Amino acid sequence: MGSYSAIREWADKEVSQQTADKARIVIGLGTCGIAAGGNAILTAAKNTVANNDEIKAKVVSVGCIGICYKEPLLDIEIPGKPRLSYGPVTAGETKRILENVFINNEYEHKKALAVIGEDSFSDIPSWHEVPFFAPQERTVLRNCGFINPEKIEDYIANDGYAGLSRALLDMTPAQVVDETLKAGLRGRGGAGFPAGRKWNIAADNIRALRASQPELDSYGYVICNADEGDPGAFMNRSVLEGDPHSVIEGMTIAGYAIGASFGYIYCRAEYPLAIERLKLALDQAREKNLLGENILETDFSFDIKLKEGAGAFVCGEETALIASIEGLRGMPMPRPPYPAQSGLWGKPTIINNVETLNNVPVILAKGAEAWATKGTEKSKGTKTFALTGKVENTGLIEVELGMSLRKVIYEIGGGIPDGKEFKAAQTGGPSGGCLPKEQLDLPIDYEALAKAGSIMGSGGLVIMDESTCMVDVARYFLTFTQSESCGKCVPCRLGTKRMLEILTRITAGHGKIEDIALLEELAPSIRDSSLCGLGQSAPNPVLTTLKYFRDEYEAHILEGRCPAGQCKALITYSIDPATCTGCMVCMRACPTEAITGARKEIHVLDPELCTRCDTCRQVCKFDAVLVV
Amino acid sequence: MHFLLEVRSETMTATTQSTNGHDRSALIPLLQQVQVEMGYVPKEAITEISKELRVSTSDIFGVLTFYAQFRLKPVGKHMVKICRGTACHVRGAPLIIDAVDDELGLTDGGDTTEDGEFTVEKVACFGACSLAPVMIVDEETKGNITPDQARRMIKKIVKEIAKKAEVANG
């Protein structure tokens, strides 16, 4: 297959054939959908279709649309009618809904979430009106949940590879770099370094290398950093699972811009579905001459190889990632030289995050100006977030940069569940910080978050309520960074260990008031003297919790009290005689037989035997278990 | 280990960089392949790979112990994975971990039961944060799990194992 227009024509034809004659039953099978039971829905849908001759529909699976709290989802799309989304559904409901819609021609409005596309049901909102989606702006997630990620024609028919075509046919590599610079695209992996500037440095170095050594096989590399390791973050995974071609296209454009002919995708091994879909997408792209030799009949050749990570958080750091691809222990190197000067196998290398690369085709297809209309002056475009924790609507979201945290948490997230009070928003994972309610009106942009002591990070956004202990959260992140520290530099290796010891001591009730000063002394030294980003940012959770939630530290140390009721050593369980009905449920559930009593007699909890496993409180229907 | 040679040729041809036919960058993919086949990386595999790639066994050991994915001991027959991502943590994952460790008698920091039936793995993040806390037992994923439910899941398998043993012993 040759030119882009021929490929596009083929894709449009394929897609219109798919949709014209047959209805589609669409099931979201991202990792989250599968975890919520999506496979059972898929089986139920397939069985229902197979058992009913009257149902003429194709069952397809798509990536994650983002509305995780309503998973598993079932979408029905009949030619000439709007696409209707149902969720959460069970296997039984799937069968019933499908039979009702296709055989009895009755849409079940009660179970419906939203109409995707043109609104034609007055009692069901369009998805743009659903509070979870309304404030969102979908550029990165443009295809997620809409196209079949296993079919290249779906991607192409939605303007896929148009950016690559424009870059290769109408622009010089230098113009492509300029376009990216002009857009103001900043690295979405966390640090926010302008992508165009990185590309520019690499392009210069590759040009120089080519001039001095004209006979080399390879002059430089493009690496896609898909080693998304922050706990509580799954934005990149959803993009890779739901729209793998967008990343491949972005990498190919980057390769053309800097003059590289080879790329690597370094993907977490914990993302088997993403890996599987990437492999398939790479094969399809090669088959359509969108990857490989003489792409789109031009002189430009570029190919991509997939590398699986092996479970080391530090490999998200670019020099450590390079070491890992080379088959070494994934330990970072001092910079400079930066990878754009001397990277993989000593060649100039650019390393961009999945989301950064996913934006590139849009910039090239629509132009830098059109792309840059969204966002703030210094933070252009949109950003995806994994909105999780103590928030009503959890899921994958994408917002225009500059939106306030309050809007994200209360409008998209629907606020805090169970009538509890908001306490903190955690951004940037183990490298970020916890922002209190005084910071709720903070605009989400790189500078504002940094000023507040946190970072943009890759997009984890974990909401915490009054029952979350902030000292315990700091300890949690330090446990993580301490165990993931590679051990190469002393400040990180020993510093995180010492900080963790102090935090553990405080949560165990053995803290001293001097510990706070000690943490405040250790944290800046570790931040300023560690070799790589892991150590430099590891103190952030401690510094921000000390800054905004100092009273919680003091309550642990001075009063021996955990205000959130989380730290096991500082809390006691008891049964409220006024509300206990003597139903024996907690008594039977208690694994240590710490609760005694008889039917209709008030139960008693022995604090000596109690392990504070919280089982009794969770099983009690009358809220009779007290934690102080 | 016949599979090693097949894996090697496949891995080697796919990489672009090689020096004298001994491609260092094939090391991690090779070890991963061994682990997929055997569930862990046995000593013999290390020796064999060392010869193939001309990388010292101590160097390979260094790589193996650096990456969390690799195991040097066989795993239990039943895999219990508990997520300890941030969302799971704030929604009670530590209580799930305590409950499962206690139920299986894994209190000394080990991850596999003495009878070789269970291995408990604490995973950084499954990415199923909306279902937090999450636990996966063999193929079954359970979201919004409570310590009590976690114990029941383990107890159910323990019971099945005992039943099987009874049948086997007549």
Oligomer: heterodimer
CATH superfamily of the largest domain in chain A: NADH-ubiquinone oxidoreductase 51kDa subunit
Largest sheet of chain B: 4 strands, mixed
Order of helices and strands of chain B: HHHHEHHEEEH
Overall shape of chain B: globular
Spatial sequence of strands, sheet with the most strands of chain A: 2-1-3-4-5
Q: Which consecutive residue ranges of chain A, at least 5 long each, have pLDDT under 50?
A: none
Distance between the termini of chain B: 37 Å
- Low-confidence segments of chain B, given as residue ranges, are 9-20
Question: How many individual β-strands of chain A?
Answer: 18
Helix count of chain B, per DSSP? Answer: 7
Radius of gyration of chain A using CA atoms only: 27 Å
For this structure, what is the CATH class of the largest domain in chain A? Alpha Beta
| Widest sheet, order of strands of chain B | 2-1-3-4
Beta strand % of chain A = 5-15%
Q: What value does the Rg of chain B take, in angstroms?
A: 20 Å
User: What is the CATH fold-level name of the largest domain in chain A?
Assistant: Rossmann fold
CATH architecture of the largest domain in chain B: 3-Layer(aba) Sandwich
Which pair of protein chains has the largest interface, and what are the residue counts?
A-B, 63 and 51 residues
In short:
The complex is a heterodimer of chains A (628) and B (170). Chain A is an alpha/beta fold and 628 residues long.
Topology, please?
The complex is a heterodimer of chains A (about 625) and B (about 170).
Chain A lengths: L3 H17 L2 E6 L2 H5 L2 H14 L5 E6 L11 E4 L5 E4 L4 H12 L9 E5 L35 H6 L4 H9 L2 H11 L11 H18 L8 E6 L8 H8 L1 H15 L3 E6 L4 H16 L15 E6 L9 H8 L23 E5 H13 L1 H4 L10 E8 L5 E6 L4 H8 L9 E6 L5 E4 L9 H6 L8 E6 L4 H15 L5 H18 L6 H16 L3 H5 L2 H9 L1 H9 L14 E3 L9 H5 L5 E2 L7 E2 L9 H5 L5 E3 L1
Parallel strand pairs in A: 1-2, 6-7, 6-9, 7-8, 10-14
Antiparallel strand pairs in A: 1-3, 3-4, 4-5, 10-11, 12-13, 12-14, 15-18, 16-17
Helix pairs in contact in A: 3-4, 6-10, 6-13, 7-8, 7-10, 9-10, 9-11, 10-13, 17-18, 18-19, 19-21
Chain B lengths: L1 H13 L12 H12 L4 H11 L3 H10 L11 E6 L2 H5 L2 H12 L13 E6 L11 E3 L2 E3 L4 H22 L2
Parallel strand pairs in B: 1-2
Antiparallel strand pairs in B: 1-3, 3-4
